[in-house]
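User: Can you fold this complex?
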Amino acid sequence: MIRLAVLLIFTGMIACQGNPYRQGGYLYELKCSSCHMQDGSGLGANIPSLVNAGLFEKPDKIVCVIYHGLEGSDSGKTSLTMPPNKSLTPTEITNVINYMQFEWELNAKPVSESWVNNTIQQCASNRKQRPE
Amino acid sequence: MKWILVVLTSVLFMNCSQPATDQKVLPKLGERYFEEGDTIYHKVPDFEFTDQLGRTVTPATFEGKAYIVDFFFISCPTICPKVKKQMLRVYNHFDPEAPLLFLSHTVDPKRDTVEALKQYAGNLGIDHDRWRFVTGEKDSIYEIANDYFSVAIENPDAPGGFDHSGRLILVDKDKHIRSFCNGTDPEEVDRFMLDIENLLSSQ
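Assistant: Here's the predicted assembly.
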């Protein structure tokens, strides 16, 4: 009986390994992987790699880039543009960020939905202040 | 009895794990016709494009060498990045000294200027002599695309549908098309690289 229990626990542990952000993983596949690749490796300097890239040191920037997109000419390095994703809800953005952090930057802290929601409001107001 | 079964199964598996090593000759793809007893195979027609450094690219650029062709555009949001990633994998797989070059055509010459192509190519860290990114007259790009792809489509062994936009195509030193694959599928690209190796070893 005890053996069976131990076996079950082990099986459970093995099954639980892997990325727990299922919706985030699904959204990553759907919205991000065509350009950033399934493994997050990007395409040279044309499309940045997301793997250990220190992207999550400034998580608020990630939120704004996912939501509003990014003009390649802003960075001067590429003419490629990241499209905006304004149809994503704060919950979905939270899940996709946490998925990416779990995959590629384990040391980063998971973000919360309320923080993502606030950040979206702030990047909206920052953008308004920018001279057009 | 049990042991015999186990041994037999193992032997069976060992046989199955042997990869096929037969040397196959890649077919010359496309239409062919007979002329005075000779078979005339389809050849890539002449072309003239401009590459990422503003240099003219013609069939003479690839003289004595095989080359890999694809079509893309820089701002493509769907399959192009994946295809480029696979093209880059093929590029990095082969010895820079091998008689093999790479040719990517933009299908968006309006936006993908020489300058934009230069930046894009530079961002991939490639050698501008080995891998040409070309632009030109829209009509001539579409015409040559039709030529490469019509051959790809005519092949009865062509796997799956006819969405040709993600194809990689292998052209030999005599301008015959010898193989192609779906550039979004890494396993197909693995098979394609074996075809390239096969061609290079027989050229």
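The radius of gyration of chain B is 20 Å. Strands of chain B lie at 32-35, 38-41, 49-50, 56-57, 66-72, 100-106, 131-134, 167-171, 177-182.
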